[in-house]
Amino acid sequence: MSMLKRRGIIFPAFSIHGGIAGLFDYGPVGGRLLRKVQQQWREHWLSKGNIVEIDSPTITPETVLQASGHVSAFNDHASECNSCSAIFRSDHLVEEYQQNPDSLSGTQLDTILAENGISCPSCNKSDWAESRPMNLMFGTKIGATRGGRQAYMRPETAQGMFLTFPMIQRHFRNRLPYGAIQIGKGYRNEISPRQGMIRQREFNMAELEYFIDPNADASHDFSKWNEIDFQLIPDPIDGEQKPINIDIGTALTKNIVRHPTVAMFMAETFDFLIKIGADPSRIRFRQHESDEMAHYASDCWDLEMHGSYGWIECVGIAHRGCYDLGAHEEATGTKELRAWRDFDEPIEVDKEVVSAIGSVVGPAFRQQAGQVSQALSELETIPTAFPFDLDLNDGNVVSIDDSMVEVVRIQETIRGEWYLPHVVEPAFGLDRIIWHLLDHGYEMTSKEGEEYLILHLSESVAPYEVVVLPLFEKDGMGKIAKELQCKLLAINGIGVYYDGTRSIGRRYARADEIGVPWAITVDYESMADGTVTVRRRDDQSQIRISTDDLIHHLQSGSLASVF
Amino acid sequence: MSMLKRRGIIFPAFSIHGGIAGLFDYGPVGGRLLRKVQQQWREHWLSKGNIVEIDSPTITPETVLQASGHVSAFNDHASECNSCSAIFRSDHLVEEYQQNPDSLSGTQLDTILAENGISCPSCNKSDWAESRPMNLMFGTKIGATRGGRQAYMRPETAQGMFLTFPMIQRHFRNRLPYGAIQIGKGYRNEISPRQGMIRQREFNMAELEYFIDPNADASHDFSKWNEIDFQLIPDPIDGEQKPINIDIGTALTKNIVRHPTVAMFMAETFDFLIKIGADPSRIRFRQHESDEMAHYASDCWDLEMHGSYGWIECVGIAHRGCYDLGAHEEATGTKELRAWRDFDEPIEVDKEVVSAIGSVVGPAFRQQAGQVSQALSELETIPTAFPFDLDLNDGNVVSIDDSMVEVVRIQETIRGEWYLPHVVEPAFGLDRIIWHLLDHGYEMTSKEGEEYLILHLSESVAPYEVVVLPLFEKDGMGKIAKELQCKLLAINGIGVYYDGTRSIGRRYARADEIGVPWAITVDYESMADGTVTVRRRDDQSQIRISTDDLIHHLQSGSLASVF
Q1: Is the Cβ pair B149, A30 closer than 8 Å?
Q2: Closest residue on chain B to A511 (Cα)
Q3: pLDDT reported for residue A1
Q4: Between residues B54 and A367, the one the model is more confident about
Q5: Average pLDDT of A195-222?
Q6: Residue A238 — very low, low, confident or very high, per pLDDT cuts 50/70/90?
Q7: Looking at the structure, do residues B146 and B187 belong to the same domain, yes or no?
Q8: How far is CA B217 from the centre of its chain?
Q9: I need a surface site. Which of A230, B10, B48, B455 has the fewest CB within 10 A?
Q10: pLDDT tens column, B14-42
Q11: Does B307 fall in a domain?
Q12: Mean pLDDT throughout A177-203?
């Protein structure tokens, strides 16, 4: 963390004003790292062709989060010390005594606290009040005047994709499967944030909601991943979870992974992490145990990465069924959250329906006659007793007697049906992923008896592609180096850092610490013949090339081809 | 707006749940437009070489926004109707009677309301309570337990750059000028949002804070813009504002624009807008009148774009002096917000200072002796009366008698000084800019007697670069078109839409409506010889090329070179 702070990567926010736990800044170097990881993630999914990106507000009215279940269920249990009034997350207090304590109920937590005589970290007494669920959303009010409307900062970006489903569906002409991604801030008002970057109150999320027809064939071609053994920790049903190494296709065949679309996203997520430089040996998938999984989910895997905090959940891949779209449909009565499915064969239906007799209904109901006919045609059963009360769509009720209707026999062709699509969701915590990229890339070596740090970041996410260093700034070398920086900056999207102060050794060391893959040095020879040296961060080897070649290689992608 | 909604560009958020004024979604097409505008903006500034990108939290503790002045001054005046209790923005009520009413005081607003007998838009009475300032920040509490800390959603991204100034300064080795950008959400809890996209409660901002030494030469080379006449509306001092057409260099020479760095950012901002496709004839710069400008600002220009709401401010370019860094320094006492400036010539100073006599102070104060010596050396005046009370840095006070100190004469070389940098800030409202790009690109023509809409978006921001259309999906053309889409998607960063439903004419029309510059059609000939047609949106001309050529041209940047 001190290196991250010193090198402008990440640091605690608002520190000049005393700081706030759980809020962080990405600095001059980290800001670009974050953007490049976001950009790689975006391109990874958008290049599939049936996925789009949306952007929705972070402020979310309460009604939406009531429907989604967050108002009642986005909680942590908190225990208050009766002696000193300090408040802690109950699951943190018991974590030495219990695996996965965040899945326990309040009563279970209280029992473990009592049975083990767990003491208060503040005052050391063991006298706990009954634990209480605390909602973790940041509340606010929409409307600057009195009577503002209750709202919350979104706990996830996913609701945006569910609520814009009608537009996504129209965009893809109702041809499932398709998905929508969103990259943005999520908020969680932690009771007591800890573990630095891992558990923030405001964090960078990236979520994909992939809509599928549960009746359609979901098979995928997994041959691309045949040779890769994934580390899986399946739900043991009974007993302890044990890791196995298995390729994803076989895991699916053996029903360890329970749905092909879930398996496909596990493999694609693995590919993404490797692309941005994660260490494959420090990635594993852990399946949720049935009591850990949300009640509506049918399969759920956490992708965990290993680093200085042990194994940490960085991505969650869940089959959420039709829970989310169904919840919004139920709350609002909208019919817009359904997709259409053609039957293989149209169904011919012979049935009796009630029909209004126009010559009677017309004069009897005048302007309401249309509504009455409509309501009659929507009756699901044939009325047997007359007169009866008929509910109109506008809320009025009218009385219908037997002179107004007749029963007719009709034949109807039903070509398909409206249904709630199912959703598979890979949800990424980008800050946690970035933390682990830094952890996996961090190598402490030594040089001339002193500690020497190299950050082996992948070129795909390195904050700067190249650094330009004049050997000295005097004798015109500074000027040439600055001009070279300008030329390289004109290459589309390239980040070029200029560093002119202190010894060249110190400047190589700084560039290695922030993970710049290539260092270009302008020296006396450059002034004579226009060549420069290119130094490779990962093994510190150097070669000399012309600046024209340098530009050419950078334009075609990477300087790796020079070595 | 109805076209934007129908085509998945922008729509009112949460509409399934009844909607919330002032909150919008970017949909399947708009989401990508927003990202491309953000990416163009980012690259525009980062390619300068002395600008970095940061990312800071949107949740901001109250102390920060007290220091910045937002808690006391981020207000609109609201007037309440005494008759029906409806509340309106006072400046909206008087806008027919007054230019720039948002710069008026509460008393001025009340006077105009009374003098003109302005009536309540709800109940039509003219009986107003005294107007009151209403703070426009969304409030929240950090900490899910009782006693949470008061905070607000940030009203601007700028505070993030001021608070991370120490890291930005270290990154650039204290060599001004340098800048930092941030792209992200800003929040403004409007009393009564209107004008759709123009006035949102949550909006996409992009701000640059550029730090300069006020003593350094700030001249810039404006020759690049010599031939471009900008439309300026200068502060008239007295009388009405009148537009003039003038190149930026001359405007600076004539002191219409008052600072070279402000002029440079005006020109660079103009360039950016042209690059993403704005119509230059619908861009102008309006200088703030002195009573409209914040008291600390020395020059301030609004870039206005013309569209369906008239002339609308889309960018503000302000010279903010040292106000922001100074405000945080004053609130916190930090010394980290200053930059160092070397004097041209070091200054030699001869002066008398108080010095501790170690052999007396040591035994007298023991562990405190170091602190006492330190505090003595920091005295700004030589004490004349003994004993006197000396304040130590830890808050203690000790008594010093004349045996403990001596006055010594020293010579000091002062090489430079710490100072507060000045800030020039271009602040962009991206939603407003996007609205105007859509407005400037929107062309309603006719085709076969029917209205026909073309959205002339610049290729640099078009949501999709190409659309792939099978003439029909049958006979294998659908399959070939899908394969072609896959191949094109493999080209880095390219957006490729596939559309297979309804007639080819309808699909061209859809693609024209969402601004896709190039439509590729796979027809019977494609099946025979591997060629496709390329159709140019802007003039609907078509040519036929091989798919290899197609891929080659897209890889090298654009299909424009084919025509």
Answers
A1: no
A2: B171
A3: 82
A4: B54
A5: 94
A6: low
A7: yes
A8: 26
A9: B48
A10: 999 999 999 999 999 999 999 999 999 99
A11: yes
A12: 93
In a domain, A451, yes or no: no
Give the residue from A14, A91, A465 with the most B CB atoms within 10 Å of its CB, the best one to mutate: A14
Q: What is the pLDDT of residue B352?
A: 86
Question: Average pLDDT in the B429-439 region?
Answer: 97
Residue of A nearest to B25 (CA): A56
- Minimum-distance CB partner of A28 among B35, B142, B167: B167
Terminal-residue alpha carbon distance, chain A: 33
| Partner-chain contact B135 A144, CB within 8 Å | yes
Q: Are residues B314 and B356 in the same domain?
A: no
Q: What is the CATH number of the domain that holds A499?
A: 3.40.50.800
**Partner-chain contact A57 B25, CB within 8 Å:** yes
Asked if B17 and A337 come within 8 Å (Cβ–Cβ), the reply is no
* Closest alpha carbon within chain A to B201: A142
Query: 């549960």: which residue's tokens?
Result: A214
Note the pLDDT tens digit of each residue in A321-358.
999 999 999 999 999 999 999 999 999 989 888 889 98
Complex-level ipTM: 0.91
Residue from A275, A324, A267 nearest A64 by CA: A324
Contact: A76, B35; criterion CB under 8 Å: no
Specify if A93 maps to a domain.
Answer: no
Tokens read off for A226 = 């045949």
CATH number (domain holding residue A225): 3.30.930.10
Q: Do A140 and B145 touch (CB under 8 A)?
A: no
Sorting pLDDT into bands at 50, 70 and 90, what band is B289? confident
Indicate if B473 and B532 belong to the same structural domain.
yes
Six-digit token string for A16: 């000049």
- Does residue A302 share a domain with residue A216? yes
pLDDT digits (tens, 9 = 90+) for B445-484: 999 899 999 999 999 999 999 999 999 999 999 999 999 9
For B272, how many CA atoms within 13 A lie in the half-sphere containing its CB? 28
Using a CB-CB cut-off of 8 Å, the residues of chain B touching A47 are 489-490
Apex B281 CA angle, B280 and B284, nearest 5: 80
Provide the domain limits for residue B243: 2-74+136-323+424-430
Answer yes or no: do A16 and B336 touch at CB < 8 A.
yes
Residues contacting A355, CB < 8 A, separation 6+: A376, A377, A405, A406, A407, A408
Query: For the packed helices B547-555 and B477-489, what is the interaxial angle rounded to 10 degrees?
Result: 20
**Is B57 within 8 Å of A500 when comparing Cβ atoms?**
no
CA-nearest residue to A179 within chain B is B28
- What is the per-residue DSSP string for B509-545? HHHHHTT-SEEEEE-HHHHHHSEEEEEETTT--EEEE
Q: What average pLDDT is seen over chain B? A: 93
Q: What is the mean pLDDT of chain A?
A: 93
Question: How many domains is chain A partitioned into structurally?
Answer: 3
Does A257 share its domain with A394?
Answer: no
In a domain, B110, yes or no: no
Say if residue B281 is in the same domain as residue B210. Answer: yes
Q: Are residues B296 and B361 in the same domain?
A: no
